[in-house]
Amino acid sequence: MDRGRKPPRHFSMIRGFHLADFFTLANAACGVAAVFFAMLFVATQARHYFFAAAAMAPAAFIFDVLDGMVARWRHEHSPLGRELDSLADVISFGVAPATLAFAAGLHGGWDWIALIYFVCCGVSRLARFNVTAEDLSQGGAKVAYFEGTPIPTSVLLTAVLAFAGWQDKLGDNLYGGTWMIGPWALHPLALLFVLSGSMMISKTLKIPKL
Asked: Is the Cβ–Cβ distance between 178 and 185 less than 8 Å?
């Protein structure tokens, strides 16, 4: 045993977090809360749970913006922070909106495929971003844009769902009704998630880097 090496301290990983990382974790917490609120709505049909779930999206977005601002202010960029940000974004802007959509009434077989596709596109988009960021950190030229829309743009989908809830357009009253395509049902609202996911993985859509 190396007597000169100190044993790891309790909570040593948390002790190594930067201030920006705690804002990132707050982002993830909002996403998890959104999922819980959506499940409460499904169980109780109490509309305030649905709106609480929707409200977690802009809260998560605020924390997502703040973590970047704090990291730049304190010059505390790190690979751990980048990975934390991606994992938090998957929850808050991928899984949470899909869960809210399911709670809103997107229960058909084609709806499931659309929502799963959306989440997978978000995961793929974040993975591509991390690879690009890693390449840049190794001395590559700085790019002026990223490919595809960022996953936080899914807050717009959550806003649509919240508006639908406000107009009592949930469940059987969803916009566009229900289409039967083969053995499964499709709600046209699910196509917005397909569009959003496709825009995230697009290689021709260029988003300026701020």
From this structure: yes
- Residue type (1 letter), 125: R
Please give the Cα distance from 145 to 49 (Å, whole number).
Answer: 38
Three-state secondary structure call for residue 148: coil
Write the CB contacts of 131 (distance below 8 Å, at least 6 apart in sequence): none
| 201 vs 100: CA distance, rounded Å | 22
* CA 108 – CA 31 distance, rounded (Å): 24
Query: Which tens digit of pLDDT belongs to each residue from 66-125?
Result: 877 876 665 666 666 678 888 999 999 999 999 999 999 999 999 999 999 999 999 999
CB atoms within 10 A of CB 135: 12
Distance CA 52, CA 161 (A): 12
Whole-angstrom distance, CA of residue 55 vs CA of residue 162 = 8
Angle (nearest 5°) at CA 102 between 100 and 103 = 60
pTM of the model: 0.85
Query: Can you read off the two tokens belonging to residue 172?
Result: 């059987």
